[in-house]
Specification:
Number of domains of chain A: 2
CATH superfamily of the largest domain in chain A: Nicotinate-nucleotide-dimethylbenzimidazole phosphoribosyltransferase (CobT), large domain
Shape of chain A: globular
Oligomer: homodimer
Largest sheet of chain A: 6 strands, parallel
Structural class of chain A: alpha/beta
Distance between the termini of chain A: 26 Å
CATH architecture of the largest domain in chain A: 3-Layer(aba) Sandwich
Order of helices and strands of chain A: HHEHHEHEHEHHHHHEHEHHHH
Radius of gyration of chain A: 20 Å
Strand content of chain A: 5-15%
């Protein structure tokens, strides 16, 4: 992004009829949106869309989640029927929900085999168990990245101007933690969380599973400076699709809101592959999952909401859409001191 | 509010297709909304409105703000023209903006003397300088409370189902801090902030001004167990109007979103006058002003947003409207495990 545009946006923000800095993070968001769009003010996003990428995980066999694998498919049916939380939140903010199978297990896929409305782009029927084998091959990771990018490009072609990440996949906080641990060199215990709400014993076991997965990848010769290799080794198909989705949004200079730890761990991969992609990323909220906060810190992104949420589906990202829109709208619509005839106490001072 | 309704709302929330507790504060908001409306689920608020109560402050003469008094009137003109931040944010969330003069100074009023659209309910032309005299008489405080209540009742009669507090009044963070200090017995230095952004020297002076105001009120025999007396002694006319607005919303069992320190200090007064009024209050955001956090803590209200905002006008309250709506919508619209055929891992466990 162009620093002169960011500077111009900041200067315009400082001429608006309000004390300078008084909108806090909203001002920073408005400046980043302008820099991304390369125009001051940036257009106000009007037609958001959330893509829910769905995958299953071989590591589920290790007992990292109390939820049965079939729930992935049942929840996809729920999304398609409009009955899940992400659907309700999307209706609230006027967002379109796109549900995309990129890696469901055969059992999960069977639940929605005949369902209309599912975007079927399966790259692989669930990942390998990352404690004993790679999640997927590099070629599969690339295919999933391409699938995610195609979804973003399709949404943009339909006129959507603000994208949100979403995900579904029982056990998918485990590969998320493994991605963060592997890419940041972080202690698995520091970046592994309770997911849907596991107890202390299961959490300790999950930390061990993440450690084994990262150790297994390292033993296979995968290093942190090889983000595609890490993604294939310990990630998930929905993570790979999210990486492509983020890269495509960034390439189109369209803002993309990150939801929780699946998105944040995928964003780490995307930013390692293409550092400029960070400019399009906005952190919707601070998930309870510690890996999300670790990834956001590494990306130098400040979350907009902090409501103690840990659902996924895109819920926290969708809920942040009005905040992003509001930030853009302030820069686009608020009168200046000169224009409104309001005395500016700080003219020439600050 | 009826605890059995809150319990029924919590039980319904726990049957929705998501891990229990995974929506964090949204779940608590949905339960409080149901308890307030006395029905599960509560109706989803669809037609929000923000009332911007305007007043001036005799304590401005003490040099607590670098902004000239005339700015109060200029900003009212800006509100009426739709050019201020609160207007832009209200357009984003579909809220009506009502601008109400309850206590503008003659100089400020002159700026908008002929302006259409201003709701003229002036009780007093600016307050007294609270360092040397009461802000207003008890009768004036009561009249302003009645004016604020009438504004709320009018908005409700027009069909608005979610109210937001707003304010305008150069220097009005000073009486806000004085109200919090007097009602909570707090150290003025702990509850006085930088308002629009004053420097260290002016902040130290402002703390002294607040201390003198509270000391003057105490010397006049006003005690913390007399909330109307404290309001008249060290408050503002817009604070008094906000108290009435909050009480009327609570009486109608309609949720009302608090903006920043003006609203939070007024909410303390309202809750002292009528403890049950707290049930209708939702803290829109955590203002940078320390008095806001102190008041919210005393009210046991958790803010929904924390974006480093300190503008007032109702901006932080309006920005929280979609979060409140989203919380209500989740409880109203999300499918249950039974209804959606999703396996519930926690059935009978938690």
């Amino acid at each position: 992004t162009d620093p002169t545009v960011a500077q111009a946006a900041r200067e315009h923000q400082d001429r608006l009829t309000k004390p300078r800095g008084s909108l806090g993070q909203l001002e920073d968001v408005s400046v980043r949106l302008a820099a991304l769009a390369a125009v001051v003010p940036a257009p106000v996003p009007a037609t958001p869309a959330v893509a829910v990428f769905v995958g299953d995980h071989g590591v589920h066999a290790q007992g990292v989640s109390p939820w049965p694998r079939e729930v992935t498919g049942q929840m996809v049916a729920n999304f398609l029927a409009g009955g899940a939380v992400v659907n309700a939140l999307a209706r609230q903010v006027g967002a379109t929900v796109r549900v995309v199978d990129v890696g469901m297990s055969p059992e999960a896929a069977a639940v929605v085999a005949a369902a209309p409305g599912l975007d079927r782009r399966s790259v692989r029927a669930g990942t390998g168990d990352i404690t004993v084998e790679p999640a997927m091959s590099r070629a599969e990771a690339l295919a999933a990245i391409a699938a995610g990018a195609a979804v973003a490009e399709g949404l943009l072609a339909e006129g959507h101007d603000l994208l949100v990440t979403g995900d579904m996949g029982i056990a998918n906080t485990t590969p998320s933690a493994a991605l963060v641990a592997a890419l940041l060199g972080a202690d698995p215990a520091a970046v592994t969380g309770r997911g849907t709400g596991i107890d202390d014993a299961t959490l300790a076991h999950k930390v061990d599973v993440v450690s084994r997965a990262v150790g297994r990848a390292t033993a296979d010769g995968v290093t942190a400076d090889d983000p595609l290799g890490v993604l294939a080794a310990v990630g998930g198909v929905e993570h790979a699709a999210t990486v492509g989705y983020l890269l495509a949004a960034a390439a189109a200079q369209v803002p993309v809101v990150l939801d929780g730890v699946i998105a944040c761990s995928s964003a780490l991969v995307a930013a390692r592959l293409a550092p400029a992609a960070r400019a399009a990323m906005f952190a919707g909220h601070r998930s309870v999952e510690p890996g999300a906060s670790a990834a956001l810190a590494a990306l130098d992104l400040v979350p907009l909401l902090d409501l103690g949420m840990r659902l996924g589906e895109g819920s926290g990202g969708v809920l942040a859409v009005p905040v992003i829109q509001a930030a853009a709208r302030v820069l686009a619509e608020v009168a200046t001191f000169d224009g409104a005839g309001v005395t500016d106490k700080t003219a020439g001072q600050e």
